[in-house]
């Protein structure tokens, strides 16, 4: 049985769950961001993980076969990988077929469509299973108008891909709501959509309509309402800069938060391309963002310090805040630095 997400918002409870997270055969943790995102932000919907031989990445969840996961309550296996180009290698097909045979539906967020793979399509039809592709934009998107919209908008931007833009947006939206602010997280990628239950995978939109999709994601709102928009890629990325610029222009952010990973020096998957420094990245985002919102400002920096011990992370956050003259925080560590960042967003 073939199924795709229909146009418009779709609540996450309409998807079969709980989930078994599939990690493919990957060896690079950054390419498992869908699995990690679901573990960290929708852990109550995840019963375990499953991988192909040779995989070295783990979410730390129980290692279950599809049959064991089904017995534990799982109703779908989610492809937890976001690899370059969003491909589904032929080497994964036996594992995907195993999940279908075990009674699980398949949920994919790749550019490659589950329904386009003949063996999966045949098995799903024979077994009455669903193939669900969430990386599908709504039809009939409009070209961006550039019209200024009411409400407040915050966009997370970055020096690279896969370094914390989604986590930062989710953490900011949660903290704002905790302060009594009317705030919504707006998902722009497959992982965010699976977490929030709705959104548009902007990198799957035809280029001419990507800024229009960003406008649709954050429409007119009450003056005190905040849309916290998940960023994608980086203006400095040799492959994905176009998506980043479309989001920047279409979302018309009043505030940006620049995301960076401590210690990362080159573009992920492109070792010949050095990353920009934080100041350069902030300046370019503000300069290009002024095209559709002349009042755009940077509230501060979200610094991913996951690879550092707590003491070193605390020192680095303080040093970078003093050097840059703005709040610098790791949202996953929280604390006073993160509270200062949130207040700077609202200032």
Automatic annotation (TrEMBL):
SUPFAM superfamilies attached to this UniProt entry: P-loop containing nucleoside triphosphate hydrolases (SSF52540)
Pfam families in alphabetical order: DUF1611 (PF07755), DUF1611_N (PF17396)
D-glutamate N-acetyltransferase-like C-terminal domain segment(s): 143-335
Annotated ranges, domain D-glutamate N-acetyltransferase-like N-terminal: 64-137
Transmembrane segments: none
Record protein name field: DUF1611 domain-containing protein
Source organism of the structure: Luteimonas endophytica
């Amino acid at each position: 049985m073939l199924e795709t997400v229909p146009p418009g918002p779709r609540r996450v409870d309409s998807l079969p769950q709980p989930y078994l997270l599939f990690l493919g055969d990957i060896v690079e943790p950054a390419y498992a961001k869908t699995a990690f995102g679901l573990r960290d932000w929708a852990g109550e919907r995840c019963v375990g993980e499953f991988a192909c031989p040779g995989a070295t990445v783990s979410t730390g969840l129980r290692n279950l076969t599809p049959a064991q996961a089904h017995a534990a309550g799982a109703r779908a296996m989610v492809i937890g990988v976001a690899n370059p180009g969003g491909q589904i290698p032929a080497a994964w097909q036996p594992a995907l077929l195993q999940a279908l045979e075990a009674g699980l539906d398949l949920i994919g967020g790749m550019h490659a469509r589950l329904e386009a793979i003949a063996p999966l399509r045949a098995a799903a039809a024979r077994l009455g299973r669903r193939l669900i592709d969430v990386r599908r934009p709504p039809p009939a998107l409009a070209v961006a108008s550039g019209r200024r919209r009411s409400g407040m908008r915050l966009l997370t931007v970055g020096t690279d891909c896969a370094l914390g833009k989604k986590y930062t947006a989710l953490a900011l939206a949660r903290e704002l709501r905790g302060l009594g602010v009317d705030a919504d997280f707006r998902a722009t990628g497959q992982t965010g959509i699976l977490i929030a239950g709705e959104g548009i995978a902007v990198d799957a939109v035809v280029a001419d309509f990507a800024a229009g999709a960003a406008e649709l994601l954050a429409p007119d709102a009450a003056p005190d309402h905040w849309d916290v928009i998940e960023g994608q890629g980086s203006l400095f990325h040799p492959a994905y800069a176009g998506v980043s610029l479309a989001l920047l222009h279409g979302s018309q952010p009043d505030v940006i938060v620049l995301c960076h990973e401590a210690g990362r020096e080159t573009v992920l998957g492109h070792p010949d391309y050095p990353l920009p420094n934080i100041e350069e990245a902030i300046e370019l985002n503000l300069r290009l963002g002024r095209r559709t919102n002349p009042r755009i400002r940077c509230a501060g920096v979200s610094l991913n310090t996951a690879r550092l011990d707590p003491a070193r992370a605390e020192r680095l956050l303080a040093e970078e805040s003093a050097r840059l003259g703005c709040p610098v925080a790791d949202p996953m560590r929280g604390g006073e630095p993160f509270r200062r960042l949130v207040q700077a967003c609202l200032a």
